[in-house]
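Supplementary Methods, section 5.1.

A reviewer requested that the exact input to the structure prediction be made available. We therefore reproduce it here, unchanged from the version used in the analyses.
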Amino acid sequence: MIPITRLYVGQEEADAAAEAVLSGWLSVGPRAAKFEELVAEQVGAKYAVAVNSATTGLHLALAALGIGPGDEVICPSFTFIATPNSIRYTGATPVFADIDERTYNIDPAHVEQLITPRTKAIMPASQIGLPADLHALKAIAREHGLHLVEDAAPAYGATIDGVRLGTISDITVFSFDARKILTTGEGGVVTTDDAEVAAKLKALRAHAASISTLARHTSTAVIAESYDEVGFNYKMTDIQAAVGVVQLGKLDHVVKVRRALAARYDELLAGNESLVLPHEPAGFGHVYQSYLVRLRNHTRIDVMNAMAQRGVATRRITACHLEPVYHAGADTPSLPVTERVAADHILLPHFVGLTDEEQDEVVAALNAATA
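The structure derived from this sequence is encoded token-by-token as follows.
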């Protein structure tokens, strides 16, 4: 079976993890601090805060902004379920917006229509590695006094006009899950240029303790921490961070390979009139965490099953507003573009290490299934 992804890790990551294990410090500590420093430098942000997943990073970001019950946060439905879940964790309400038919990212015009006095933030998802229209969304957020909290889970290294994601939005959250651009197994990082927000993030990820565990451990005097509010246990371990430090050094290569694979898919599939291929707007740097195609006049489950029978894995993205946990019966919003795209797309195998022979087989399986 050609998998949807394959890990790009090796001896260097194994050695880094082993060194962390043998160091005697496993929880969030010096390696996590180094990882944060390198992420901030790489994306151009003033602050980076490592967490144990992008999901918790999104929750933490909203909590740091004081978003809670009675508030609304606008987000796409065409995204991983973690996006709206993170909003619900705070007690706030996710309000689903439709997407652009070409980019599959949240539609700024629809976002503006959904703003109410209860709206406190906009949470775009830079879907499958392509940045959302952040400048348009930022202008809307500024006009209405809202926060822009970006779910950039699959888009580490992506750019707009040559600027990497991580500084355009007020807060940006990246994932280092096993299927993402870079990985720490599980893990995430939150970036911001706001010193007050960064301090709040660091406190809240560790039960809101007034002094970190590492600071207490390395102090030559007795320090008693205090807890002034309810926090969370969202820390990244130093083992994960050690792997992350190695992975960060591979970013340029990973993005280059993923873009080359996408270009090769574009070339090989160009003659298949049953497909709609990805679109990359001018000035936007797609990192292709996934390669998404839409199907014309074919049933998705049939295509996916046919490809599976030929040994090729595929996946799809959910329309969250139609999932049982968010479906509201007659009150479920109508999102026509989201519903069309959610019904007729598939994700193809796409990862560093995918060989030409494997990619040729993916294409052959897809062409046969859509003939």
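The chain has a mean pLDDT of 96. These observations are discussed further in the main text.
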